[in-house]
Each structure stands twice: as structure tokens, then as C-alpha cells.
Amino acid sequence: MDLEQLLSSARTELSAISSPEQLESFRVKYLGTKGLLKEASDQLRTMPPEGKRSFGQQLNTVKAAITKEFEECQARRGSTLEPTGPLVDVTEPGVLKFDHYRPGSLHLIGQTIDRLIDLFTMMGFSVASGPELEDEFHNFEALNVPLTHPARDPLDNFYLEGSEGAPLYMMRSQTSSVQIRVLEKQRPPIRIVAPGRVYRPDTVDATHSYMFHQLEGLVVDEHVTMVDLKTCIDQFARGFFGAEVKTRFRPSFFPFTEPSAEFDVSFEFADGTTKWMELGGCGMVDPNVLRMVNVDPEKYAGFAFGLGIERVAMRRHGVEDIRAFYENDLRFLRQF
Ligand code: FA5
Predict the structure, then answer these.
(1) Hey, where are the domains in the chain?
(2) For residue 81, what pLDDT band results from cuts at 50, 70 and 90?
(3) Which atom of ligand 1 lies nearest, measured to the CA of 282?
(4) Which of 48, 103, 136, 288 has its CA 20 to 30 A from that of 297?
(5) pLDDT tens-digit series, residues 279-315
(6) How many whole angstroms separate alpha carbon 58 and alpha carbon 65?
(7) For residue 215, which of 146, 328, 87, 312 has the smallest C-alpha distance?
(8) Does domain 108-333 have CATH number 3.30.930.10?
(9) Residues with beta carbon inside 6 Å of ligand 1?
């Protein structure tokens, strides 16, 4: 390669450069990794020793000259390529897209529990809790549910595998177990609510799930009557759903209350029809339960109730299928 020829053609081309694109093509052609100067360097490596030294010196001089003159030309022209595409100021703060960076919120069931606690604390209740993994004594026996009772059928409960002689454990099937946990520790007057998860191998449908939440209520004091129970449920329903809500009590049976009832609220469906929805069970605490925890039934009486928290949330927000709470579809959950 004739290096003098290379330098002179480079100079001619540099002097004719009139655009950033031409400057860039020049750089690629002469100074690029596959450019003419690189080609000359490769040539140097394979040259016979006689001419190698002088060619090498000349190459260095030519390379330095072309690089220097290219940089001068670049400086004169105001450097590199003009940007193409939209101009972005990288120092500006980012644009927050609300949909992508929406702050999280409590699940609707969590919100409903908070609201229930707010309401019942205003009505004078305090909050209690008990374990979800429970023994048969607290879930059944102390609640006057004998071993032979069908509610204890293994097909209707999630029992854990037990070892011989040890108490049988289960996932609690009702928050009524917390009644016993509280009565074991506290003497009347008692006025508590206990929200929490419960488990039953129920067939899943629009109003049933195998894991759901209940809120238990327990009041034990002197002179407590069924009127107090009914007033309490009615006040809760009005406070929670609004003054226009309709409630209904139906006689029922629970081994731990006598008399017992179930209570329903009216539920208006999207198609305009109104139906009753069962919210929970309730009743006057059975004297046997009080005796079991050494509370004198001659002196004290009590009422208890247990309501389904999913059902309460469904009624309040017009949700027609309980499964919506657990499918984790953000389009549903974000509405609340
Ligand atoms: C009980 O669990 C009683 N422990 C309630 C009680 C407490 C009675 C205190 C008396 C005194 P029941 O099995 O009916 O009762 O359930 C109470 C409520 O839980 C139901 O009314 C309903 O709202 C809800 N519930 C019951 N089963 C399911 C289920 N599979 N999925 C969703 N909610 C349910």
C-alpha cells in the first residue's frame, strides 16, 4: 500500500466533508477497525524485515496525521452525528404511568375485617383471636358437640393425622372455638369479637368456599337476653349496610346455643331480583358451655353469633360469586 497516496487521498476527502454522515463514513473508511490504516498495519506484520522498519515509521506518521486532521475537522464541524428520532432530556424525572405504578391496597376481605372491627369496637366490643390449627376440645367438645355428633364427621372437617394418645388436631371449622379460648382466660363481663379464617371441605359454589372467614361475637354478663342479641345484630346490619337494610331471623339449631337462630339480609342482584342471603348463626350461649369453663349459668347468661365475612362483603359490594375473592383477578380487586 502506498502510504503517501493514502495520506493525500485522506486529506482530499477530509477537505470535501460537508455533513456529519460524511465525517462518519470517513472515520469508518480510514480509522475504523476494518479501515485502510488497519489494513496497512496488517500488511506491516507480514512484510519482509528489510522494508518493515521504514514502512512502520511511515505508517505511524501517516496514522497520526490522519487521526489529528480528522479530529480537527470533527471539532470544526461541531462533532458527531445529529441525533435522529425524538429528543429526550435524560435528566428529566420519569413519567409515572398510574396503571403500572398504582400503589397496592388491602384485599377486600382485609378491608371488610377492618370495617367490622371499627363498627364493633364502637359498639363496645374488644378484639380476640385464637389458633387456626385447633384441637377437638376447643372446636367441638367444649362447645357441647359430643363425639357422636355428625358435625364431627371426618368427611366434614380437615383433621390432621394424629398419633395414638395425642389430642386430635384439625383446621378449625368455626371461630366459635375462640369463645372457649376467651372463656378459659377471662371472667365475665365479656364482650368480644374474633375475626379469622376457617376451613371446611365444602363443595365450592357461588356462596361457599373451602376456606373462608368468620367473625365470632360473644357477650357474657348478668341479665343478658335474646333481645340484646337481636338488637346487636340489627344494629350491626344497619351500621354496616345502611339504615334501609332488611334483616330476618329464622329458628335454627347449634349445639352450643339455646335457643338458636340464623340471620339473613336482603340482597339485591344485578338483574333486579331481591333474595335473602344467610349471613350467620347466633343464639343464647348454652348453659353447658358456661359450665364447661366454670362460669355459673345461674348468675351469668350470654349470647353469641358467627357471621360469614365473605357474605358480608358480597352484600355490601354487590359481589354475586364468592370465588371472585380468591381468583386474584386484579381487574376485580382494583375496584375496591
Ligand atoms: C357456624 O359456623 C356457627 N359457629 C355460627 C354460630 C356462632 C352460631 C355462634 C351460634 C353462635 P354456620 O355453619 O351456619 O354456623 O356458619 C356461619 C356462617 O358462615 C354462615 O351463615 C355463612 O355466612 C358462613 N359460611 C358457612 N359455610 C361457608 C362456606 N363454605 N363458605 C363461605 N361462607 C360460609
Answers:
(1) 3-77, 108-333
(2) low
(3) 10
(4) 136
(5) 999 999 999 999 999 999 999 999 999 999 999 999 9
(6) 11
(7) 312
(8) yes
(9) 174, 176, 200, 202, 208-209, 212, 214, 254, 257, 260, 278-283, 304-308, 310-311, 322
